TrEMBL record:
Pfam families: Sulfatase (PF00884). InterPro entries: Alkaline_phosphatase_core_sf (IPR017850), STM4013-like (IPR047838), Sulfatase (IPR050738), Sulfatase_N (IPR000917). Belongs to the sulfatase family. It comes from the Bacteria. Keywords: Hydrolase. This is Membrane protein. Residues 13-261 form the Sulfatase N-terminal domain. It comes from Streptomyces inusitatus. GO terms for molecular function: arylsulfatase activity.
Amino acid sequence: MINTADVVLTGTDILFVTLDSLRYDVARTALAEGRAPHLARLLPGGVWELRQTPGTFTLPAHMAFFSGFLPKLPQPEQPPRLWECRPPSFKTVPSQTFLFEAPNLLEGLKQHGYRTVCVGGVTYFSRETPLGGVLPDMFDEDHWRPEFCSPEPDSTRHQVDQALALANQHSGRPLFLFVNISATHVPHGFYIGDSTDSIRSQIAALAYADTHLGRLIDTLTHDRHWLIIMCADHGDAFGEGGYRGRGIVRPEVTNVPFAAWLS
């Protein structure tokens, strides 16, 4: 059980990684096939939790995450939430949940001295459109370049390089570092030499990202303690029932991998 209230009280750094569009079955298969050895080493018990996302595409999922609603277990009883906006007086919240007195997590962390930093991936973090500024505006600072986005075959390397530079730059104060990994977002067929995106190409995309995710976490935790949260925001349909893409309520979209641990 992670006591996030204590994490924030002690100023422990927080890394929150979203693997954009990564299906749970893809994440599980990549581990089973030995395609994600760094994640297998780092994840608690070497496995992903099956959870269900509150949003079926990037914008609503992340708005929910930053409002206190992370993916839930597919069962009636839930563990204490990691963070939550202060609720009405009639509701009781477990003591280990970080309660923020603000409209969103980022504002709440700022009140406790955290610097909130975003390394964007997909275009909802790019500021290229009016909607592309909604999520970045929530942070103290945000970073996005075209090479961070999914059409770039080496996007995760560029993102991790940026994230590590920022972590080093802000080493003197508590840091909330958010990274939206875009490699698992379409298009990813090129990872297997195909023009069509599929389960197999998303596995290959995760296999590519795995090395850089291992580098990110190993470097960050070498001399600092971190709370690490890693999950997908949603999944993608690859032709099941005739559906492709996201923004639809299907298990391929709503079932996501999740993990959280202290390191």
